[in-house]
Structure formats: structure tokens, C-alpha cells
Design goal:
With about 140 residues, the chain is an alpha/beta fold. The chain has one domain: Ribosomal protein S11/S14 (Nucleotidyltransferase, domain 5). It has a 5-stranded mixed β-sheet with strand order 3-2-1-4-5, covered by helices on one side. Helix 3 runs parallel beside helix 4. The chain is globular, with a radius of gyration of 18 Å.
Amino acid sequence: MQTLQKKILKKKNSFRKDFFLKKKDRIGILNIKYCRNNTFFTLTDLRGNVLFSRSGGDLGYRNARKDTWTAVMENVKSITRKAIEKGYKNLYVNLRGFTRRNNGTLRRIFRSRCSVQRVIYRVPTPHNGCRSFRKRRK
């Protein structure tokens, strides 16, 4: 999170920039974390303070239904609506985790009235893969 803030805020003491902007022009960071059985959405300001968060369980879904397509889309819809209400129209989207719903989620965010400034993928894949098995003796 610290590196993302450093990339966004370039000048010294410019973390107060978000505070002085008009309510319409505020910039927020939308963190999306895909887990095995759930998807977590967190809206933060540039300082990293959590403004709003949602997950599949907040909508009343339980167990495997929390990770369904409808649960993810309803969460995207509610969190973008909440971001616009609070004045965060410009968003940086930070995606963590690996799932097939990445593109659909992004499409839904682009369709909302929020303007996406940057999309950052953080996929936890190893650089060189797992260690290979030892070779069989001849």
C-alpha cells in the first residue's frame, strides 16, 4: 500500500492534496482482493484511510455463493455508487489475487460513472515456479 501511495503522490507533503480538492474531484483507491471463496472490495482515500468496504457476506450470501458472479457484480455496483456519493469519482483500481472475474469486474467499473485513472494488477505468481523433481537414476 505504501508503494502505491508513493507512486500517486509525487511531491513532498502532497498527501493533503486530496483534502483540499472539491468534493467532485477527489481521488480514491479501490482495492479488490479475490480470495478462494470470497471477493473483498475496499475504498480508501490517498492516505490509506478506509472509507467503505464490501464483501459477498455483506449482501447475505453464505458459503460458496459469496464467490458467484452475481455477488461480485452487486458489490461493484454498490461500492461505485457509494464512491460517487462520497465524491470520489476518480479511482485507482488495485487488483490482488487471480480469478476469471477480473475482466468482468473491470468492465463493470468502467461502465459506472467513476473514471478509472490506473489499473494495477498484483497477481501472486512465482517468478520461476516450483522446484522440479529430482531426475530418476539410470
